[in-house]
Amino acid sequence: MSKKILILLPDGVGLRNFAFTNFTNLGKEKGWDITFWNQTPFELSKIGLNELKLEGKPHFLTDLYKRAKIEAELDHFTTKFNESVYQEYKFPPNLNSLKAKLKWKVVQFLAKKYSGEKKLIKLREKFANIERGKTLYKKCIETLQNEQPDVVFCTNQRPVNALAPLLAAKDLGIPTATFIFSWDNLPKATKVVKTDYYFVWSDFMASELIKYYSEISEKQIKVTGTPQFEPHFTQGLADSKSIFYKKYNLDAERQYLCYSGDDITTAPHDELYLRDVAKAVRNLNNSGKNIGIIFRKCPVDFSDRYDRFLEEYKNEIVSIDPLWKQQGSQWNAILPTKEDLALQTSIIANTFMVINVASSMIFDFVSYKKPCGYINYNPDLTNLKKDTRSIYKYIHFRSKPSEKVAYWINSESDIESIILKSLEKDTIETIEQASEWFRKINKHPANESSERIWKALNEIS
Question: Where in the chain is the domain with CATH 3.40.50.2000?
Answer without folding.
Answer: 4-57+131-226+446-460, 231-441
